[in-house]
Amino acid sequence: MHVLIIGASKGIGLETARQALKAGHQVRALARSAAGIEISDPNLEKVSGDALKAADVEAALAGVDVVIQTLGIAGGDLFKPVSLFSAATRVLVAAMAAKGVKRLICVTGFGAGDSRASIGFLQKLPFKFFLGRAYDDKSAQERLIKDSGLDWTIARPGILTNGPKTGRYQTLAEVSKWRNGLISRADVADFLVRQIEDRTYVGQAPVLVN
What we know:
Blueprint: E1 2-6, H1 11-22, E2 26-31, E3 44-48, H2 54-60, E4 66-69, H3 84-99, E5 103-107, H4 121-146, E6 151-157, E7 159-161, E8 170-172, E9 182-184, H5 185-194, E10 207-209
Parallel strand pairs: 1-2, 1-4, 2-3, 4-5, 5-6, 6-10, 7-9
Antiparallel strand pairs: 8-10
GO molecular function, one term: riboflavin reductase (NADPH) activity
Organism: Rhodoblastus acidophilus
Pfam families: NAD_binding_10
């Protein structure tokens, strides 16, 4: 498959690019610092561009079958107004509609959208203080995706670690089972790459934890 990864220069996006290439996919990596991506592979196309610019996103969608959106912000930005997630998604959804690309896989997080109600009582206050601004915007991001008419899957990982890929994580699709927990970025990437060809979770937003 021809896969566009938005936010592929670090974190989950970079690991997703590695694993998608290993799985045999053609990967186009869109990021402002794409040239610095430390992967050398003939099936990887590095595209420098801005996820907030419609022209950059539309150009990156040419010939693409699947889009994986893995945006992130720096820790210091958590205490400022956050609009990156919703603004970039608004641009992406419109561009995908214009280009006829239907499949969207997106990473938000446990605590976004209706999963916020599943946060434990003792975690609610620190969550709101440290992550509230970002997750309010991720909730807006999720609403845009759910209203888009695209074939979407939203992945909501718990607390991210730099651990190895294990493949032993849990995919919690039922609301009654949603909970917080640890999961490595490599295991989140494993889930994302699996969704490129697996439609089991189309129209769903499962929580991912160990």
